[in-house]
Amino acid sequence: MGDRRVVITGLGAVTPVGNDVTTMWESIVAGKSGVDFVTKVNREEFPAQIAAEVKDFEPTTYMEKKDARKMDPFAQYAVAAAKMAVKDANLTIDESNANRVGVWIGSGIGGMKTYEDQHTKFNEKGYKRVSPFFVPMMIPDMAAGQVSIQLGAKGINSCSVTACASGANSIGDAFKSVQRGDVDYMIAGGTEAPISNMAFAGFSSAKALSLNDENPKQASRPFDKDRDGFVMGEGAGLLILESLETALERGAHIYGEIVGYGATGDAYHITAPAENGEGAARAMQHAMDDAGITAEEVDYINAHGTSTALNDKFETVAIKSVFGDHAYKLAVSSTKSMTGHLLGAGGSVEAIISLKAIIESTVPATINYETPDPDCDLDYVPNESRNQNVDVVLSNSFGFGGHNVSLVFKKYK
């Protein structure tokens, strides 16, 4: 069972550039930015005043009001995206297969809004006014728990908490669960709702956020010489992974195949990437080895590309170290230039974008690319999406703590 082929049959997304996959993809292809002035915190209290927020999201479209009230927004986003993905996959979960349907949803931070709200109540009114749902609303694994409850999935239920690699780790681990035969189906991805006072304060104190407040839509500028930090985003991306056998048996639409997963640790620093992207390079090579492909077979890299000085420089160095001369023939882009950085949900939303690139023969652009950086000298698909055949995509996600993940998606044949 260990060599089962694993395909993707359903997609669901809640993002700053659209609350469904179709709208999100249309925005990405058009180069539309989801960044604007932040509304979920008092921007006058912070040096950074912009964010990529989810807009016009109504949780009761996807769940009962009484259930939504017991969920932090990060779990609401996950339930919504999961239900979209299951519907898109035309997957019925019932007594006949529930034990073979698993859930693996990562989150880097979990219920930040819940934590802040309840901490305020505790300080002002004491412990008796703290909600009895405080802990289950806050903990990062509860997105996976709520999706399992809402959909009746009784297979493996897990959560990867690996900072900004959480969503990608979750997809990779879900892939291996299906490949091994532990389950037949996985609802997998990441979710995050971090736009809160404490998260804004923490990243501001770390001087990690872009201060380009005068031009919000131009603030996220990966690989550009004038980049000055990332833009915090939020949302969720969920995929239905299943064995090729079950997909064919039920006549499912197949978006593509996941064929490689590489995960490494830097063992270097709590926030900075390893020198010259050494750990990232190993993750990319492991993913390609796992997929059984050569560097020359990769057409497009959806880069981690956070718009921070060190990440973009060292990711570029890592790509060149792994791909050699082919690095200059690859299309490389960062869709964070449009979505902002969704932290733990970034890798899963970018996995969906990678699959759409294959299906639509379209490579998304890196918008706001205006001033080339000598340290970043690859083809970053500047400013306009590009029509080209895409058979193989490698998607990178890296996180604080030295977590590196690369996923390989391939056109289904």
UniProtKB/TrEMBL annotation:
It is an enzyme of class 2 (transferase). Coiled coil: none annotated. PROSITE patterns: KS3_2 (PS52004). Its EC number is 2.3.1.179. SMART domains: PKS_KS (SM00825). It comes from the Bacteria. The keyword Transferase applies. It catalyses: a fatty acyl-[ACP] + malonyl-[ACP] + H(+) = a 3-oxoacyl-[ACP] + holo-[ACP] + CO2; (9Z)-hexadecenoyl-[ACP] + malonyl-[ACP] + H(+) = 3-oxo-(11Z)-octadecenoyl-[ACP] + holo-[ACP] + CO2. Pathway: Lipid metabolism; fatty acid biosynthesis. Keywords: Acyltransferase, Fatty acid biosynthesis, Fatty acid metabolism, Lipid biosynthesis, Lipid metabolism, Transferase. NCBIfam families: fabF, PRK06333.1, PRK07314.1. Belongs to the thiolase-like superfamily. Beta-ketoacyl-ACP synthases family. This is 3-oxoacyl-[acyl-carrier-protein] synthase 2.
